[in-house]
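User: What would this chain look like folded?
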Amino acid sequence: MTPPEIRNRLIAQRYLPVLQLRDVRLAERAVECLVRAGFSAIEIAITMPGAIGLIERLTEKLETEALIGAGTVLDLDAARRCIDAGARFLASPCLVAGMTKMAHPAGCAALLGGFTPGEILSAQREGADIVKVFPASSVGPEHVRALHAVYPDVLLCPVGGVSLQNIEAYFAAGAALVGVGTNLLDQRALAADDGANVIAHARRFLTIPALPPAPVHAAHRRLTL
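Assistant: Here's the prediction, encoded as structure tokens.
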């Protein structure tokens, strides 16, 4: 898949699981449940010990079932290790200069982060396929609405504090997709290896009725402000 195809698959899923658990054993269990629940793209935060090895294993194991991406990628050395492990997209909560230029030739999409209007524009000009708005919980959907009004052609992905209670508000504000962390998982069921309840909880995010349609961006054109 090409970076634009990966970007479109992330947008079509609408919810990007962002996994940052206390150990890779739980993370691997969570990924298996999320794939069974219907998710086909999952982000693994590389702040977990052993996360890059987990990305490599999952990429090989789930090659035809799910795209595995690397999250919290903060520098180019980490980006290169994630690419070598098979990650299909790289995500950062901030702007990492040069990451897009490294990701795209390797067939990876790049999700760069920003919070202020200036940071959002810098991420977009750096060539980000999607711009993460982090931490979204600090200001909520109205911040995304204001950013979307100024940059209607930037694909925004709010991350941080996204839940079943506010998802519709984020989409109505102009989010192209949302990143969902701990709220996506029934932590008690996951710890107890109760896969059925983990799957049932996660599926609630995929069956929310009457969600607004994903924003349509004209050819996802680059801004020239």
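The first helix runs from residue 3 to 13. If you want, I can go into more detail on any region.
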